[in-house]
Amino acid sequence: MATIHPTAIVHPGAQLGENVVIGPYSIIGEHVELGDNTEVQSHVVVDGHTRIGRNCRLFPFACIGMQTQDLKYAGGTTYAEIGDGTTLREFATVHTGTRDGEVTRIGQKCLIMAYVHVAHGCRVGNEVIMSNAVQLAGEVEVDDMAIISGMTGVHQFTRIGRMAMIGAATKIAQDVPPYMLVADNPAMVRGPNVVGMQRRNVPTESRSAIKQAYKLLYREGLNHSQAIERIRAEVLDCPEVRELTSFVEKSTRGIV
Prior knowledge:
The chain is α/β, with parallel strands linked by helices. The chain has 4 helices and 28 strands. A hairpin with a 4-residue loop joins β27 (180-183) and β28 (188-192).
């Protein structure tokens, strides 16, 4: 049974799971679904066709499921989805998609800190951390376990690879390869994210292979095709290296 503060406004059509808590002055719209044990604190707005998973926490003034700001929006039903165990801190905003049927999706066990904006059609993986005032433009993809430091702006249609880490106040206008550290303006790859890989228990041999691949990709003066050819010929064939080379080959915006 849900616990709803008397000052909260919850539409009768909203679907509330077991042990949901809705705090003072929060507003829950008609097409909203809240999973079991999710806590909505005071002054939160959740509207639109929005599904929030189990064990999530929404802090004051978060605003989830609002209509996209994209001027191309021409009506239709669009969605927002938040995975289990994700936390959205104060003033975080997540908008629904632009095209009819499009979903803005944030995965499981993410930490979305204060003033973060996730725009229409973004796809954020699991266990992603976005620090204060990170701004994702439309259609951005962020893979699992990436970390984006505060006040970073990410250009529309950009991809950020798995376990990448981006330093504070960085402007991201091209794709960030997986397992890399990126910082500064203009954004530059500073090296492999060795500490991040260690913390995530990436095997030692895979970490060494990523270091070798990084050198070929960024330090040998090779173009991307040449670097990938040499990586495949000279570097240990492991899942992490295959992910890196595949990411680079699929990039349409170019890589940082």
